[in-house]
Amino acid sequence: MDALKRRVADAVEQLGDELTALSLSIHAHPELAFEETRACGWLARFLAARGFHVEAGVGGVATAFRASLETGPGPTLAILCEYDALPGVGHACGHNVIAAAGAGAGAALIAARDALPPGRILVIGTPAEEKGGGKGRLVDAGVFKDVDAAMMIHGFDRTLLHQDLLGVARVTFEWTGKAAHASVDPWAGANALDACVATFNAVAMLRQQTRPDCRIHGIVADGGAAANVIPERAVADFNVRAPSLDAMWALHRRVVAVAEAAAAATSTRLTVTRHADVYEPLKRNQALLDVFAGNVGPAGLSEGPAAPDRVASSDIGNVSQVTPTIHAWVAIAPLGTAIHTREFAAAAAAPPARAGLLAGAKLMAMSAVDMLADPSRVAAMKEEFARR
Question: Residues 128, 305: contact at Cβ < 8 Å?
């Protein structure tokens, strides 16, 4: 199988200019969650042109797609693409590289289809990772029902095969008070912004009592319209993260209690909205990690220093709860570059990102070859998944 893996790696190299152009086009035209019509279309056309059967709007999500290659009875492997951007800072999470790498891995495999062991390769376009939980919607719609293993890569400042991902729940607080002139009759008002500020201050104190692997963070979405009017309405959005769903919901209850206490203290009324797009923690699968570990060097990568304190969340966690899943990190930016920054957005379109993109595509394509060639490895992944 070494010859076949070399063949798919060579196919990635031959596609290098096209994949780079695809990545740069997505980067230059950032689209927010569930609005990724151009990125989705470019990826679908790229894969269809290479012989994939492409279905648009899978799972009832307009900007999702599924491209299929079948070579006979065998494992079903899914390669995932993300392509949504962030408000204000564009592709500061490097989803353009994720998308092009996933498409590149699929294109390399179909280029070698005459020699591939039997099985099914799916390249699945998964929108709205940054907000909205596109993968969770696809899971709920049954898109991953028959998938034996799922894989994707994510750009980072170093290469890591595994990094824990926290579960996250979003909650919106809306306080309703009473407007009044802030100088003439302040005692006649009930200040909703005071409740909001009190909540942020209390959450800051609550962090002292939370475990170091948990996170609470939020923004003020509405704090009033004029300084000389007591704000009658204030809104804040919070994310609550933890390494398990039980811990996440326990912390969520404490944050809600803080907001309720602030409302009572300010004589305002609180409305709590818990959003449906809950991201689940990433379920580790060592058997799948072992397959990828065998291809890190051949793909031209080497693992960097561990960063256990840099924990994020992703809806890939929802996929990992229904099938063995890997979310590998690939260096596309200088060590120490923080993600979700303008610096990382620039790095995602810089020349080193090309190297990470191609290496990530090779890593996934060669690992897929290993799994197709030895279905017992997939069986081991599924057995481990059932135990955990």
Answer: no
